[in-house]
Task: structure prediction
Amino acid sequence: MSISLKFPAIALAFAAFAMSQPASAVQEQGDAAAVKHPASVIVFDQKIDGSAVKLSYIFAPDKSHAVVYGSDQNGRHTGKALGSVAVEPGDHRDIKIPLKTEAKSGDKLWISIYRAQDGGTAFDAEKDVSYWAQDEHLPSTNGFVVR
Result:
């Protein structure tokens, strides 16, 4: 057999092998494509810009609300929202959250993200659910200090 005939014979053998594999072996499964990324937020200690807090980064898997909380004398969040902003699904940078109550230098504030249960633009503490409420391995909030 000549050299020019050996290469096509080998290529034909590999092609026949590839064609005999089931479709699931070469295609991505539907379940893997449906997996969502978890909600996340990055916020740093900061000077307040007017009456708003700035999030450096936020990812929301669904229509959501980013909510700012104050803290008590022990540094734990109070559960009283100081401000919120509606966030569309996806990743966003440099989001500003207007505050209803003024924060002063040295205050520790907290950020949490909630899924908008009714799709509304206003945060509803009784209906909207924190992404982290059902997963104890993730932080329930992110803290930062006003400079």
